[in-house]
Amino acid sequence: MSAMLEIRDLKVDLMTQRGIVYALQGVNLALAKGELPGLAGGSGCGQALTAKAIMRLLPRDRSRFSGSIRFEGTELLDAKEKYINKLRGDRISMIFQDPMVSLNPLMTIGDQIGEIYRIHNHVSKAEARKRAAEMLELVGIPPADKRMKQYPFELSGGLQQRVMIAIACACKPELLIADEPTTALDVTIQAQILDLLKTLRKELNMSILLITHNFGIVAEVCDRVSVMYAGRVIETADTRDIFRNAKHPYSRALIASIPRAGGESEYLPTIPGAPPRLFERINGCAYAPRCPYACDVCRSSVPETNAVSENHTAACPVMMNDMAGNI
Amino acid sequence: MQEYLLTAEHLTKHYRVGGNKRNPKLLHALDDVSIAVRPGEIYGIVGESGCGKSTLGRCLLRLTDLTDGKIVFDGKDISKLDRRGLKPLRRDMQLIFQNPYSSFDPKYRLGVSLREVGRAAHMSDDEINEKLNTLMDTIALPRDMLTRSPSELSGGQLQRLAIARALLPGPKFIVADEPVSALDVSVQAQILNLLVDLRKQLNMTMLFISHEMTVVEHLCDRVAVMYLGQIVENAPTKTLFANLLHPYTRALMSAIPKADPDDHSERILLSGEIPSAIDIPKGCRFAGRCSHATERCLNEVPTMKEVEPDHFVSCFLY
After folding, report:
1. What is the distance in angstroms between the Cα of B57 and the nearest Cα belonging to chain A?
2. Per-residue pLDDT, A323
3. Residue B212 DSSP class
4. Interface contacts (A, B; CB < 8 Å)
5. Is B265 at the interface with chain A, CB within 8 A?
6. Of residues A33, A21, A167, the one with CA closest to residue A99
7. Inter-chain CB proximity A42 and B196 less than 8 Å
8. Which of A33, B171, B194, B286 is the most exposed place for a label (fewest CB within 10 A)?
């Protein structure tokens, strides 16, 4: 299985008013055609930033990059802007958490979807309208002819997110990056949107990189998952393995802290402390100050990512030790 | 001790959203909602956006006027009180909001924000300081946090302070409106644990509003499920989750993505969305999305029925 998207040792530094933030400190991620992996972790751990880096949406004058992002063999980090513009919305698309702020409030739904065909496929207005109507049917918002003329504010959050998906999938992209697509929605609507994403993945044969903080969503839709902490991917595994056999203490702690239906204990396990502020490069494991198993090795050098089994890697020196593995 | 700290009967709240005086267009935020909260109880209200759960919280605190209904708090009818009459009650009833970042004045140091609440409750400075000292221990934050600005703290720390602020005047009743929804799951767990502690230490009475069934199940003693301005099911937490009765409650529960890759239980996928609260459907409000709906559901309004001891549901199936 060759990788469609391959990210190697991606580092992103952001210049902010308060100083340089070393936001990504070496991200490794690979994604094959047709896959639906999850990218999970707490807030501020770099999932959304990784997505923006792939889409080249970060301001070039206020950020520094190193490492590599290859999409179908082409390096994206130093590709020409013109090339990226062609790629974006055509072969790689993205949807965001809050559809209301992502849609243009002054354009009708039909025009917003049609615009994609006008830009990427250079079709006539009539053709764009026809294709937009087809797209609306595909994402399940009939009757298309009525919806085409509506503005975003006339639709509920769930329908707005469907419109976002229609725009993102208009050109049948090879890769869709979904950044917390259901976080702003109610659970019953969330279930509908997740179903839609699963259907579209099959129908359009696309890969979806699903960014979420919700391990329930990971369990339900993702094939495998990468967990991020402090700007690094600390564990990657098949979905089953992350729930049954997580190796990194952070992955374990995250999963343990979810309130479950029928949970018996009164208290939930928590993680002491807070994620580090990334104003400096961290030498050592960023999780060590909060980790109950941390030892000297963890504090002195950045842990290497090692294979646990065929599809399972983790960056924790202690986990190789079987004793810790049984805790 | 009286059996209930707070009872609300037939609460109704309509907002006029158009039309004229004679023929107003009304948004039915709450329709005939009754609840009774025991002292020391955490009472959960669960439902989707727009079902009226926040309106219910605000009505109980009398932050808005009622269209109809009666609220008895601590043995006193508060439903008709005016601003002045409510003032002495404010000490006894406090509110915690969803977003900790927007619940503090960004230009005030946190201590200023907290002390303000104490002064509004006519506490002396000594009293406030003494109370703050114990509260900072309770929420497990160092005291010097009070000299910082909100922007220097994390969401979890701010939410702890929001809880401390609500506790400062020593309230008898707290409404917590989605207090953990804006937080990461590991931080959410910390706040939930804190609430469990508070209940034990202070015997706190709380209305806990949430859209997450699992959180409510974890924390609350009693749960009411709301749909489109009404309570559809109401029971002690254990009874309710052991035997979900209303089709909406079942759908809500089944829509939650289970954090377990081996859970292949069949999902009930609801079609459509919550109807508009302006054009209320005739009959059962859930009938349009319900797979069990019959002719009767579309025409007749179901009433609350006690299906098993202390388990109430409003559905014709039972």
Report:
1. 19
2. 43
3. -
4. 119
5. no
6. A167
7. no
8. A33
Which residue of A156, A270, A271, A291 is the best one to mutate when testing the B interface, meaning the one whose CB has the most B CBs within 10 A?
A: A270
Flag if A263 and B270 touch (Cβ within 8 Å): no
d(CA A186, CA A192): 10
Does position A322 have pLDDT exceeding 60, yes or no?
no
Q: Is the pLDDT of residue A325 over 50?
A: no
Phi-psi group of B137: left, alpha or beta (phi > 0 → left; psi -120 to 50 → alpha; rest → beta): alpha
Q: Which residues of A touch B269 (CB under 8 A)?
A: 191-192, 195
Q: Which of A97, A161, A220 to mutate to test the interface with B (most CBs of B within 10 A)?
A: A220
**Six token digits for residue B91:** 């000490």
Q: Are the Cβ atoms of B186 and A261 closer than 8 angstroms?
A: no
pLDDT(B186) > 90 = no
Three-state SS string over B70-117 comes to: EEEECCEECCCCCHHHHHHHHCCEEEECCCHHHCCCCCCCHHHHHHHH
Interface subset of B 181-210, CB within 8 angstroms of A: 184-190, 192-193, 196
Q: Which residue has the tokens 């992350």?
A: A242
Q: Tell me: the pLDDT tens digits for A162-183?
A: 999 999 999 999 999 999 999 8
Task: Tell me the pairing of strands A38-40 and A19-32.
Answer: unpaired
pLDDT band, residue A321 (cuts 50/70/90): low
B221 in A contact zone (CB under 8 Å): no
Residue count of chain A, please give it: 327
- Of A215, A230, A222, A257, nearest to A47 by C-alpha is A230
Query: B186, A257: Cβ pair inside 8 Å?
Result: yes
| Min distance A44 CA to chain B CA atoms (Å) | 10
The residues, ordered by sequence, that sit 6+ positions from A42 with a Cβ below 8 Å of its Cβ are: A213, A229, A254, A275, B184, B185, B186, B187
Average pLDDT, rounded, for chain A: 90
The complex's ipTM works out to 0.82
Mean pLDDT over B37-61 rounds to 93
List the single residue in A with minimal CA-CA distance to B242.
A262
Question: What 3-state class would DSSP assign to A176?
Answer: strand
Question: Taking the CA of residue B246 as centre, how many other CA atoms within 13 Å lie in the half-sphere pointing to its CB?
Answer: 32
Chain A contact set for B257 (CB, 8 A): 190-191, 194, 214, 216-217, 219-221
Rounded distance between C-alpha atoms, residue A220 and residue A266, angstroms: 26
Cβ contacts of B244 within 8 Å, gap of 6 or more: B233, B250, B253
pLDDT tens, residue by residue, B102-149: 999 999 999 999 999 999 999 999 999 999 999 999 998 999 899 999
- Reported pTM: 0.88
Least confident span in A66-70, A203-207, B22-26, B257-261: B257-261
Task: Check CB contact under 8 Å for B185 and A213.
Answer: yes
Q: Which residues contact B186 (CB under 8 A, 6 or more apart)?
A: A42, A253, A254, A257, A270, A271
What pLDDT was estimated at residue A315?
Answer: 92
Task: Please give the pLDDT value at position B314.
Answer: 95
Tell me the mean pLDDT in the region A314-324: 70
